[in-house]
Amino acid sequence: MLRMYQDMLKFWSEVWHKEDPDWSSPNAAVWETGPLVLRRFSRSRQTDVEDDLSPILIVPPQAGHHSCIADYDAPHQSLVRTCLDSTENPVYAIEWKSATSATRNDRIDQLVEYVNGCVDRIGKGVHLIGLCQGGWLSAIYSALYPQKVESLMLGAAPIDFTAGGGKLQEMVQSIPMSLYEGLVASGNGVLWGGHILMGWKIMNFYERFCGDYVNMWLNINNSEFLERSRKFRAWYDYTQDISGAWYLQAVAELFKENKLIKQQLQVHDQLVDLNKIECPVALLAGEKDDITLMPQLFNMAGLVSTPGDEIYKAVIPACGHIGTFMGKTAQAYWVDALRFIAGALEEKASHPVIALAA
Questions:
Q1: For residues 278 and 168, which has the higher predicted lDDT (pLDDT)?
Q2: How far apart are CA 107 and CA 137, in angstroms?
Q3: Could you report how far apart the first and last alpha carbons of the chain are, in Å?
Q4: pTM for this structure?
Q5: Which fold has domain 2-346?
Q6: Burial code of 35-59, b = ≥16 C-beta within 10 A, e = fewer?
């Protein structure tokens, strides 16, 4: 009886445990503006060629969570660390801040400007890595500024938004715009991160509201399990608000109307044409991703001008949505993608691009 009582106290202590997520690899903020922080990550030693190489810039999603999912748990679940360990290139990542009244009217135009500000601050053309929502933003940026993008790598990123269906598409198509507009209005122009988190949880109702707690109870004396669970909940339950303006624009023009692949999306007073992307492209999808289905990403291969032998496509086995970029097994596929991009660029390079680590 005493053991049961102790286990219950421990269980409820775990349930109510709160901590903030953070980057797991050493880094420094090299530029900060209203909506973001640009971070440069450090290696254990500076290489002789690092500053001569084209940098890698990771664009995490803005989906109500912290951007540190790109550096979730170094060394084995961190895309940042994978890039640091497998190349000699400088590695940067954007850290999106929570939206405020000052940024609530930002549209996709402003998101593109923010990415461009980071690239200009870095001072060189970049190897752009876009994750999930950061993926469609990276694709749009690459189409508008092809001269600034050396290569484009996308993980679990919707491009052909309505292809293949899936849970997210079913939800988006079944909910009228008036409901989305009401959620934004309730936040005075900002979409609260709590609303986004609840939406994600509802899509996997049993797992989030029952299964997670059952597993916690069954493993209440397994310290390794509890540590992993605590770390994930620190990221998952921590919420950030996003601009209501670009959110409503994305729902209507991307998720509902699929304007990106129809060349109907207007950004900076011009139509976004993915055919202007000519650089090497890598596309990585999760086999069990029920948020971004494989056709939503892979259909991009037929929309760009990149030659077929310079397009890398990989399906990561038994991998879900965020696991595509933070899963342990996924990191080997990102290493392969970086090697592929390096090989595709090697012969035609007139300046340093990707240098693979020894």
A1: 278
A2: 11
A3: 57
A4: 0.93
A5: Rossmann fold (3.40.50)
A6: bbbbbbbebeeeeeebeebbbbbbb
